[in-house]
Amino acid sequence: MYPENPENFQTRSGWIEVICGSMFSGKTEELIRRLKRAIIAKQKVKIFKPVIDNRYASEKVVSHDAREIDSVAIKTPSEILAASSKMNVIGIDEAQFFDESLTGVVTHLANRGLRVIVAGLDMDFSGNPFGPIPSLLAIAEQVTKVHAVCMRCGQPAQYSHRISADKSLVIIGEKDKYEPLCRTCYSALFPPAIKLKKLRD
Ligand code: ZN
């Protein structure tokens, strides 16, 4: 973002950043990078994540490359409001697991002058928009879509293809359960399902 009116650039106001992409695309890594820079800049930073994400460590946000940062595990987005007083920067990881009320909470924080950085999966394993992420993309000042590497052809990947047969929406897993795929390789796996959906419409 470039300020068109530098004189007013110092006016205290917050904003929303969203980092989205598939699994193994480096979302959490990018979130941690931004938050660590904010800490270096002596900002008061707090990080939240849903209780459901208990892989690796219960009180830390840890990326696949083992970078980590202390975090608070919460059940509902409203808990962020109560725990954010006197903070400058709020990070939210695995945001797709929260309900739509996250959008209102994030807006409230940004309106109060905080920088809010949200990271999450933009699509579920079926390729559908995931939870509150589409709404957050719409209201954010800045959006970053990161990509994994397609495990079949090496192109940039945006789909989180589930290798395991389980059909429930939420399965926390690693590379034994999911593989990142590009559009070409992902769509080659599911052409019948797309045709069926069109027939129903
Ligand atoms: Zn591919």
Account of the 3D structure:
The protein is an alpha/beta fold and 201 residues long. The chain has a single domain (6-146), classed as 3-Layer(aba) Sandwich (Rossmann fold), CATH 3.40.50.300. Helices cover 27% and strands 25% of the residues. It is built from six helices and twelve strands. It has helices spanning 27-40, 78-82, 101-111, 133-139, 183-189, 191-200; strands spanning 15-21, 45-50, 60-62, 68-70, 72-74, 89-92, 115-121, 142-146, 148-149, 156-157, 159-162, 178-181. Strands 5-2-6-7-1-8 form a six-stranded parallel β-sheet, with helices on both faces. Strand 6, helix 3 (101-111) and strand 7 form a beta-alpha-beta unit. The longest helix has 14 residues, at 27-40. The chain is globular and about 50 Å long. Zinc ion is lined by residues 150, 152-153, 155, 181-182, 184-185.
